[in-house]
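Researcher: Let's try something more involved. This one mixes different molecule types, so please make sure each is placed in the same coordinate frame as the others.
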Amino acid sequence: MAHQEQDWKDQIKRIANGVRRRVLEFTLRNGGGYLSQACSSAEILSTLYGKIMNLGPSISPRIPLPFAGVPSKNNKDYFTGAGYNGPKEPHLDRFFLSPVHYALVLYAVLVETDRMAPEGLEMFNKDGSSVEMIGADHSPGHELMSGSLGQTLSQVLGIALARKRKGETGKNWVMMSDGEFMIGQTWEAVETLSFYALDSVCVFIDANGQSADGKIETVNQIEPLKSRLESFGAVAVEIDGHNIEQIVEAANVQHVGKPLFVIARTRPYCGIDILEKRAPKFHYVRISNEQEKQELENFLRQRFGGAEK
Amino acid sequence: MKIETRVHERNLVRWASDKPEVLVFSADLTNSTEIGLFKETYPDRFYSFGMTEQNMMSAAGGMAREGFTPFVHTFAVFMYRRALDQIEMSIAYPNLRVRILGFLPGITTPGGASHQAINDVGILRTVPNMTILETGDATEVESVLDVAHSVDGPVYIRQLRGQIPRLFKEPMKLGKCRVLSEGTDLVLLTSGIMTEEALKITGAIRKRGVSIEHLHISTHKPFHDERVIEALSKTKYGVITMENHTILGGLGSEVAELMAENAIGKRLIRIGLQDTYAHGGSKEYLMRYYCLDAMNLVKAVENLLGEELDITEADLIEPELEEIEKSVKPEDL
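Model: All components are placed in one shared frame. Result:
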């Protein structure tokens, strides 16, 4: 039993490590990228996919299809990326990524959990590809149009109300960023989830304290997040977002008749500590000179044994 | 002309009785948008969202993704203005079956600029995948639900409430105008409440020897009815549009685009709000103050013909259904 305990934790750590390595590789290759998002959310997403969520195996092509047009009544080729999270079944969970600037992190998770081929990552941000930089509905692992931040939770509210009408038992997991709690619509969604007592909705917040302009506390006031969420009628727990045991425990917190919000406090440089000196600018890690590049390449070699290929 | 009250309220309950997939969303304006009876009749299919329009629009998208058809009700301004991004990204982009019922079009409310939807058609016409319908009488308020239901994508309905005349017998048809009179001197295109307003005076204009092709428009998008193009092509003096909307982006613009694309080089006079917000007041007062009323139609006709018609307010009549129907071939209705 103790052995099995250790097995799943090792597995999650392996996934999280792989996510950081793949995103770092990409950042190096592109001269910049959403690297801090990988650092802060690697454990959250890895634990959701590796341990917490009850998803079926991927039903989408291992190598993502090219962009097939936006939805319209004439587009019969349209698809979403939801199939990478398994089939839609009444008893199965669903996953929704809200801050789709994290798309590269999610793609890396899909590769590490064997839902997408590594070749899929090679298509990242290439013209004509569905593996877009800011994830869209057709991007692997995505289902909704979430790039305009703050709309996902309300869309999931609608999905959860619909699933309740249909008597479905699967949960609806959402990953949000703390920056989205600046947005009025987020709070409209929380109060309405509470009004409808929707305990099928569970939200992990990557509370890395960062938004596009820098530290959130210099941009606007979102704290105290836990008591704000509780006062809106949710169950809220606060954890160390890099501690996978705490992540699993938080997902199992009782929240009958209320939505669950897990405030996962994270560090935007966790696991790639040489990024720390970039504070307070983490939103997009730009590699602007040879020295920065060398430094990250050395780190990649020492920490992860170099690029995979 | 028969005036009816709270037509949508009764009709929606009847219409939805055999459609369990139809759900009604409300944003704290339940009785103001005539869905109180629906709430009483089908409490399980009624969802209150309070004043969270952005949240409500996104949630409607979520519901539609799971196979339900939300009929979202509130004042139009609170949807196309406050929640446009949500309408676009959560509903229109994914081409979902959400029906957006926007109440208080144009100057139909004394609520002033904050409540008057004067540019809803113009704004939503630029939204891909969106179908736009407008009702002009009780028959259309009823039959618009069937038209919307036939569309596999989002539909915006510019809906009327309260006291509404019954002008037409035949149900609304998607993308088809109603031919209210035929003539070759000029084409008059009217939508929504402006049709009733125009009908107060078109008889008097005809009596002065002017032949008018009067078309009632209820589908703003898509807008490529062959019957409209034909009328625009054959008219002698020009075209007049009358809309309860700013002249930018709505019916006047639709007609202008159609004329330009079909190389129809005729004059066009657009009656509507002249690029201005309105203020609070009665419908009659506002129609006169903002030059939307029947007497302004007379001026527009005189302008096109280049002659005075000697028509006064004494010539205004209350439109009669019979009069409308008798001048029109049955298949055109």
